[in-house]
Write a structure and sequence with these properties.
The chain is of the alpha/beta class and 392 residues long. The protein is 41% helix and 13% strand. Bound molecules: flavin mononucleotide and iron/sulfur cluster (2 copies).
Length: 392
């Protein structure tokens, strides 16, 4: 979402940053962009240079005797470096680790100077608000969450992509009207909203409006504006494991709760997905989620348990099924078996696609899968034109 804004509307963000700089009396603006977004870096640098050449930035800001130097600093892409105090540490050349607040960056930030940190989406809205007035902006959205929000709509939805909606638009409107719903023959199951540390909201709560307060109530967050649509082929335990694996990997390691707590939580989730979970694991997972969330220093650790909290809250039956050795969505490799049913026409496509030769080629006859060799890669099911490959 931020990358798209930087790549597509660099001047709008630059203008917003300049207005913000004047508002707080700053003479230096730094864009902190991850190195993995080279096009964004290139376009922002080009926009700065064009403005400098025309005398709009640099020693003078437009016609004013107000120096404003703008530069780009490339980060190495650590998730935690989005946290404002870690971002400042990274800018100063230190390891990107958050620190306790206060002092807040506005009091003591980069090199000990008061620093304003904003997201590019915020800055992109500034010039519009100044031009049209705050009332016009607040006319979009809800009473407490005003304006619009950009989302990266992804996952099992017919029309994925970047969307901008007024705050308060419901999850259902986003998934069904804008995204065109989930694919043929599939059922909408949930949305994972707010990026890696967001929560999973079940389809039964699809009429929840997307605003800060309502999302908090259902256990999700606005976060980075990621919105992943999940269908009945997604396993919610596996989803929790997947996102926790990401946040665990990105933990900077400063706090024990985040560093070790998320590791222990991940161990439990991996165990459950492998069919080796025990009933006391759920209790331990709930316990650890609470402590990691409460005992962590920064937003990364505080929100990392969100996918676990919400899947336990709304999809507890799936955890229970895993403890009994069954993955209802047929996703967790250790808990599933592939077989060929009577619908097989003997077309041999499955045998041709199997990377480990677990299906002997028997043209015009019902095929069989050698379970000793099968690695559960799912290729045969995907290529079978008759829907004759079952996953149980
Ligand atoms: C782990 C973590 C990662 C974050 N990543 C980003 C990020 O990539 N981009 C961003 O703008 N803000 C990120 N933030 C939020 C920033 O710390 C900060 O709150 C935000 O940029 C403030 O801008 P706003 O008030 O304009 O939203 C992150 C926060 C945390 C805790
Ligand atoms: S909560 Fe995690 S990421 Fe944040 S400071 Fe602590 S260890 Fe680092
Ligand atoms: S799931 Fe993969 S490995 Fe197993 S039989 Fe099918 S194609 Fe072969």
């Amino acid at each position: 979402m931020d990358r798209m804004l930087l790549e597509s509307f660099p001047f709008r963000i630059l203008e917003g940053a300049a207005i913000a700089a004047v508002a707080v009396g700053a003479h230096e603006v730094i864009f902190y962009i991850r190195h993995e977004y080279p096009l964004a870096v290139e376009r922002v640098r080009a926009a700065i240079s064009m403005c400098e050449q025309r005398g709009w930035l640099g020693e003078r800001l437009l016609d004013h005797d107000y120096p404003l130097r703008v530069s780009v600093k490339e980060g190495a892409g650590a998730f935690v470096c989005g946290e404002e105090t870690a971002l400042i540490a990274s800018l100063e050349g230190h390891r990107g680790m958050p620190r306790l607040r206060p002092p807040f960056p506005a009091q003591s930030g980069l090199l000990g100077k008061p620093t304003l940190i904003n997201n590019v989406e915020t800055l992109a809205a500034v010039s519009w608000i100044v031009r049209h007035g705050p009332e016009a902006y607040a006319a979009f959205g809800t009473k407490t969450s005003t304006g619009t929000k950009v989302f990266a709509l992804a996952g099992k939805v017919c029309r994925g992509g970047l969307i901008e909606v007024p705050m308060g638009t419901t999850i259902r409107q986003i998934v069904e009207e804008i995204g065109g719903g989930v694919g043929h023959g599939r059922t909408f199951k949930a949305v994972q909203i707010g990026g890696p540390s967001g929560g999973c909201v079940p389809a039964k709560l699809a009429d929840t409006p997307v605003d800060y307060e309502s999302l908090r109530e259902v256990g999700a967050i606005m976060g980075s504006g990621g919105l992943v649509v999940l269908d009945d082929s997604d396993c919610m335990v596996d989803i929790a494991r997947y996102f926790l694996q990401f946040t665990q990997h990105q933990s900077c390691g400063k706090c024990t709760f985040c560093r070790i707590g998320t590791r222990r939580m991940l161990d439990i989730l991996e165990r459950i997905c492998a069919g080796k979970g025990q009933p006391k694991d759920i209790e331990e997972l709930e316990h650890l989620s609470k402590w990691v969330s409460q005992g962590s220093l920064c937003g990364l650790g505080k929100t990392a348990p969100n996918p676990v909290f919400t899947t336990l809250r709304y999809f507890r039956d799936e955890y229970d099924a895993h403890l009994k050795g069954r993955c209802p969505a047929g996703r967790c490799r250790d808990l599933i078996q592939y077989s060929v049913n009577a619908g097989c026409t003997g077309c041999t496509l499955c045998a041709q696609s199997c990377p480990v030769n677990a299906i002997p080629m028997t043209p015009y006859q019902r095929h069989e899968i050698n379970l000793e060799l099968c690695t559960r890669c799912d290729s045969c099911r995907q290529v079978c034109p008759s829907g004759a490959v079952d996953v149980n």
